[in-house]
Design a protein that fits this description.
single chain; about 130 residues; alpha+beta; 6-stranded mixed beta sheet; about 20% helix
């Protein structure tokens, strides 16, 4: 059985009630649960504003990766769940602030009917592999 370390509330990220934000597995693979536009206190950031939500989601991803000893340099896959594909330019702009175009990870974008609450426009998850 693989031993996993779970971090349910990394510094600066609202605690999760029904999942771990970060799971660290053998071989230093890091899976980050889908992040939403939530501030550290759990309040929604940027209701109705895809750019503001994307910036907050990428900040939460950064914090989760850091909690696992990883960074965006280690991300090998991003998965985007959006309620409207029109949010993708805002997501790409937020991503560009963290990941240069010459190191883009694999990615999937999926339009969904709804997320866990109607004020969320996107949810983004990451998979990282840390050397060593």
């Amino acid at each position: 059985m693989t031993e996993l370390t779970r971090i349910s509330a990394p510094d600066g990220v609202a605690p999760a009630a029904q999942y771990s934000h970060v799971v660290i597995g053998t071989g230093r693979m890091v899976a980050v649960s889908g992040q939403l536009a939530l501030a550290e206190d759990g309040t929604v950031v940027g209701e109705g504003d895809p750019a503001a939500q994307a910036r907050q989601v990428f900040e939460n991803l950064r914090r989760c990766l850091a909690a696992a000893g990883a960074s965006f340099d280690d991300v090998v896959k991003l998965t985007y769940f959006v309620t409207d594909m029109a949010a993708m330019p805002a997501i790409r702009a937020a991503r560009a602030a963290h990941i240069p175009d010459d190191r883009l990870p694999a990615a999937s974008a999926v339009q969904v009917a709804a997320l866990v609450r109607p004020e969320f426009l996107m949810e983004i998850e990451a998979l990282a592999v840390v050397a060593g």
